[in-house]
Design goal:
Blueprint lengths: L1 H7 L3 E4 L17 E5 L12 E5 L5 E3 L2 E5 L4 E11 L4 E13 L4 E8 L5 E8 L7 E6 L5 E3 L2 E4 L5 E13 L2 E13 L5
Keywords: Signal
Protein name: PKD domain-containing protein
Pfam family, one: PKD_4
Length: 191
């Protein structure tokens, strides 16, 4: 079944990501979920093939593109088998990979209003204990920016502002980008 092996080589894992928006990609899972996409391997003359996925938890899913969320930390073997209905055959383990589900990264923003009507914004990053350096970049939503784990900012006028925080974490020679956004309302009496 050489044509199956040839097209499996073009298989791609489309999103191992921790980014909470599509702006940033890395090689880690978000919320212990993975999306597998073999659409690049589908041959025009063989769209009748059935793709069967196992995820190391006793769960079967079918389709060219599938999503799966893991319930527990651990290492799992993902297996793609292909069913050929023309000859009624199952080609097992056409493609395999190991997925390691580890502690998740989580980023949140804590904003408080200070006595002088400015705000103090703090980043809260929880991540595996083996993480390295972390940098924090703030977009206040009013055209100004800042860097730091905790920052102070005074808004020039009342309004609704979208505060965006990007955290860059260096972990085992990889850069992981996490994004968190929150909306802040500043009233006239707070300026």
């Amino acid at each position: 079944m050489k044509y199956l092996i040839a097209f499996i080589l073009h298989f791609m894992i489309s999103s191992y990501t921790v980014a909470q928006t599509a702006d940033y990609d890395s090689v880690y899972l978000i919320n212990n979920c993975v999306e597998l996409d073999a659409t690049g391997s589908v041959q025009e003359d063989r769209k009748d093939l059935v793709y069967q996925w196992t995820f190391g938890e006793g769960i079967l899913k079918y389709g060219v593109k599938v999503n799966h969320c893991y319930s527990y930390l651990g290492t799992y073997e993902v297996v793609l088998s292909v069913i050929d209905p023309q000859i009624n055959a199952l080609f097992q383990k056409e493609w395999t990979c190991q997925v390691e589900v580890t502690e998740n990264y989580h980023l949140s923003i804590d904003i408080s209003k200070d006595v002088d009507k400015s705000i103090t914004a703090s980043s809260i990053l929880s991540c595996p204990s083996t993480s390295g350096q972390s940098d924090f970049f703030w977009d206040y939503g009013d055209g100004t920016y800042d860097v730091g784990k905790e920052v102070i900012h005074k808004y020039p006028r009342a309004g609704s502002y979208s505060v965006r925080l990007l955290a860059q974490v260096i972990h085992q020679n990889d850069t992981i980008n996490l994004v968190q956004t929150t909306t802040l309302s500043i009233q006239d009496d707070e300026i």
